[in-house]
Design brief:
Elements (H helix, E strand, L loop, with lengths): L1 H20 L4 E4 L6 E2 L4 E7 L9 E6 L3 E4 L1 E4 L5 E6 L5 E10 L5 E11 L1
Parallel strand pairs: 2-9
Antiparallel strand pairs: 1-3, 3-7, 4-5, 4-8, 6-7, 8-9
Bound molecules: copper (II) ion (CU).
Copper (II) ion binds next to loops.
Length: 118
């Protein structure tokens, strides 16, 4: 009886901790608030649900024709925040392709599409 009880508690604990620490996922980005203007450099804030190991992570800009360019990034002020430095871009569709290593040691790949306005 007691054994089952502890097993259940343990199961609940592992399930909930997986939800809390499951990889580094982008939960907020300044791209949604403020569109990127053509021809101007721009700092973009990405907020992750977990701390990101920047030394082990990659952020690439994807331009027309699937051209990739490594982006400069920095740790932000907020918890889980990464500041991405965008170079001056032409108008049109672009994306940030990210491969991030979370504090829990898990690797996550994601792509964030955005539009550069005139
Ligand atoms: Cu994880």
């Amino acid at each position: 009886m007691f054994k089952h009880f502890f097993r259940l508690i343990f199961l609940l604990f592992t399930l909930s901790s997986k939800v809390v620490f499951a990889h580094a996922v982008v939960t907020e980005t300044s791209l949604n608030i403020d569109p990127v203007q053509a021809g101007k450099t721009r700092q973009v804030s990405l907020i992750f649900n977990s701390r990101v190991e920047l030394a082990l992570s990659h952020f690439d800009l994807v331009k027309k024709g699937d051209v990739h360019e490594r982006l400069k990034v920095d740790q932000g002020q907020k918890r889980g925040e990464v500041i991405v430095e965008l170079p001056a871009l032409d108008p049109g569709e672009h994306a940030i392709r990210l491969k991030v290593f979370a504090a829990d040691g898990h690797l996550t790949e994601d792509i964030i599409h955005f539009f550069v306005v005139e």
